[in-house]
Amino acid sequence: MQLHDLITKLSSVIRCSYSALPGIKPLHIDPSMSEIYGSMDEEKLQIHNELYKCPGLRKIHLETAKLGSLDVLHCVFFPDPNYDLPIFGADIVATPRGVGAAIVDLSPVTCLSSKLNEQLEEVSKQYKFKEERTLPEWGNIFSPYCKFIRPTNDKEQTKFINTVESYLTIYIQEVMKSHPVEGIEERILGQHNYCHQQKKNDKTRGILERCFDKEWADKYMDELLFDEPK
Q1: What's the CA gap between 149 and 132, in Å, rounded?
Q2: Which DSSP state fits 48?
Q3: Which residue in 98, 116, 121, 178 has a CA-CA distance of 20 to 30 Å to 38?
């Protein structure tokens, strides 16, 4: 599957980052959900999913997809609720004409620590973009340091990769030094809210329903993209 250059480069950055995590191992995935093929309005759909887990993270999910000329990257690191960690997320939507949307964030499950706030504020000030997009109505799950942008040229695309690398460096360090702490119930509720809000993204659900059907789209959203911790 040949994808937009920014997606190819960012996929490599993400894989390199999570490969450094101690105890990382593949997470079981139904073979029918690993490689997915479909079509919409005579355009072919292909989805590739990678799943991992490690101490501190219940699921690392990297999805790359292609629908006709539309290329998508979706990535979420969900923490084990026993650990007081935010959720890392990054998405890209691109076509041959350019990148329509790129987003990265460390989203609070309950609240970000003062140290994380300081680190993210510093990185956020370092990387500025010409076209910042407005978050959707359901986007109250994101932190004040969320970068939701439309890169205007190759230089800004490189800057976005650097931004993601910086966020990931901060995040991986937090995961490596984390340990189980009290407060699991609140963090489970926080992840439930994050998943519930993300499922309000009608664009994703709409494409899946048109390529397959509503039942399949609901299963994909509920069991793979945004499965809630037990």
Answers
A1: 4
A2: E
A3: 98
Per-residue pLDDT tens over the stretch 58-97: 999 999 999 999 999 999 999 999 999 999 999 999 999 9
**Residue 109, burial from CB neighbour count under 10 angstroms (0-12, 13-18, 19+):** buried
CA dist 116 → 2, 167, 216 (Å): 36, 10, 38
The CB-based long-range contact list for 153-158 (8 Å cut-off, 24+ gap) reads 156/129, 156/130, 157/5, 157/6, 157/99, 157/102
- Contact indicator for 102, 151 with CB cutoff of 8 Å: yes
What element of type H or E holds 75? strand 70-79
Q: How far is CA 168 from the centre of its chain?
A: 11
- Eight-state DSSP code of residue 39: E
Q: Which two tokens stand for residue 23?
A: 């105890």
Q: What is the pLDDT of residue 177?
A: 96
DSSP secondary structure code for residue 211 in this structure: H
pLDDT tens digits, residue range 100-138?
Answer: 999 999 999 999 999 999 999 999 999 999 999 999 999
SS (H, E, C) 103-166: EEEEECCCCCCHHHHHHHHHHHHHCCCCCECCCCCCHHHCCCCCEEECCCCHHHHHHHHHHHHH
The Cα–Cα gap between 216 and 183 comes to 34
Distance CA(27)–CA(17), nearest Å, equals 17
Average pLDDT over residues 171-197: 97
